[in-house]
Amino acid sequence: MDAAITTPMKIAFAQLNHIIGDFASNAEKILAAYRDGVASGADLVVAPELAIPGYPPRDLLFRSRFVRRNLEVLAEIAAEVGEVPLALGYADVNDKGIRTAAAQRRRRAAPGGRRQGLEVAPPDLRCLRRGALL
């Protein structure tokens, strides 16, 4: 049997009480949960769907500055993430419109011990249309 399959993985689930539109508070809660998970030896920390903007943002998603601020906070959180990956939900915009998305953020060591860029894996989980409920 492959050793990678039999090696246990510790996952920290960040069960947080987010406030819709309070980006600073939500980011603080996400990062505090991330740090707690890392300190407890987690191999992965997972935050909820739409963790950054708060759930459910509903019509706030149709304000361009709301989604833009949410993406800025995603980048701010990413800058704080270390070797342990953080998976979290946020609102994104593509050519089809507004969507919920997930990102996995982690710093990877590049050859020579340098820090390398962050991985982002934003799957299209659900497209939203004006008036659609989350």
Describe the structure.
The chain has three helices and seven strands; from the N terminus they run H-E-H-E-H-E-E-E-E-E. The relative contact order is 0.16. It has helices at 3-6, 23-39, 64-80; strands spanning 11-13, 44-46, 86-94, 97-105, 107-109, 115-118, 126-127. The N and C termini lie far apart (42 Å). The strands form two sheets. Strands 1-2-3-4-7 form a five-stranded mixed sheet. By secondary structure, the chain is of the alpha/beta class.
Rg value: 16 Å
Report strand %: 15-25%
Low-confidence stretches: 109-134
User: Largest beta sheet: what is the strand line-up?
Assistant: 1-2-3-4-7
Tell the overall outline: elongated
> Quick one: how many beta strands?
7
Number of helices: 3
Give the end-to-end Cα distance, rounded to a whole number of Å.
42 Å
Average per-residue pLDDT, rounded, comes to: 77
Q: What can be said about the biggest beta sheet?
A: 5 strands, mixed
State the order of secondary-structure elements, H for helix, E for strand.
HEHEHEEEEE
Fraction of residues in helices?
25-40%
> What class would the helix/strand composition place it in?
alpha/beta
Please provide a brief summary of the model.
The chain is α/β, with parallel strands linked by helices. It contains three helices and seven strands, in the order αβαβαβββββ. Helix 2 packs parallel to helix 3.
Task: Walk me through the topology.
Blueprint: H1 3-6, E1 11-13, H2 23-39, E2 44-46, H3 64-80, E3 86-94, E4 97-105, E5 107-109, E6 115-118, E7 126-127
Parallel strand pairs: 1-2, 2-3
Antiparallel strand pairs: 3-4, 4-7, 5-6
